[in-house]
Amino acid sequence: QKEVEQNSGPLSVPEGAIASLNCTYSDRGSQSFFWYRQYSGKSPELIMSIYSNGDKEDGRFTAQLNKASQYVSLLIRDSQPSDSATYLCAVERGGSNYKLTFGKGTLLTVNP
Amino acid sequence: NAGVMQNPRHLVRRRGQEARLRCSPMKGHSHVYWYRQLPEEGLKFMVYLQKENIIDESGMPKERFSAEFPKEGPSILRIQQVVRGDSAAYFCASSPPQGQGPYEQYFGPGTRLTVT
Q1: Does the distance separating the beta carbons of B56 and A44 come in below 8 Å?
Q2: Is residue B32 pLDDT above 70, yes or no?
Q3: Which of A88, B24, B58, B114 could form a disulfide with B74 if both were Cys (CB 3.0 to 4.6 A apart)?
Q4: CB contact burial B49-73 (16+ within 10 A = b; e otherwise)
Q5: CB of A52 within 8 A of CB of A38?
Q6: Is the distance from CB of A103 to CB of A37 less than 8 angstroms?
């Protein structure tokens, strides 16, 4: 089993819709989880961090964490064409407090 | 600009030459991380440094690669005798000292290394 798995996509949604991005991880000791956005040819940009089970909302973004199921998700409400990018799920390796393992990313396309 | 800075942004080297990549962390940050992103692959952790200390280099190739973060100046990732397989985007990230805010890593713009 891969350490961090994401659907590679592409995930295509119409403008204004909700985009749902999913991520599963294998290390039960992981405590910190992050979502990064990466535009083509650019560097990863941190958009959400989550440390506790449940939901965390920030503007149009909601991160959801379920440690029992080893599952993290990111919802983007009112999707905009500018949200079109690759979304990377990053999971801290249990006990390290710093070493991040990244999924390969999900390519999101928001169609006007 | 108080963000993470990296230079050069693009670097072309012939096989066998040395590549030096520089990273200045975000203001107030003292932890530096280097990652490599190969085409069509995910970001891979390489090394974690604090000032004058290599904390974890478990992701570094055993040969030709080294990293430092001196007391003064930027962190440097050094690749000796580059080969074509070293062509990739190299990203530096930084985070604040432990206990000073949430643990989050912020990335610089990256250095795109091309080996010809």
Answers
A1: no
A2: yes
A3: B24
A4: beeeeeeebebbeeeebebbbeeee
A5: no
A6: no
- Amino acid letter for position A107: L
Is B1 in the A-facing interface, judged by CB distances under 8 Å?
A: no
pLDDT digits (tens, 9 = 90+) for A31-47: 899 999 999 999 999 99
* Average pLDDT for A9-16: 94
pLDDT for res B99: 64
A1, A65 in Cβ contact below 8 A?
Answer: no
Please list every residue in chain A whose beta carbon sits closer than 8 Å to the beta carbon of residue B109.
Answer: 42-43
Closest CA to A86 of A1, A5, A8: A8
Contacts of A97 in chain B (CB under 8 A): 98, 103
Put simply, the answer to whether A46 touches B103 (Cβ < 8 Å) is: no
- CA–CA separation, A106 vs B9, rounded Å? 25
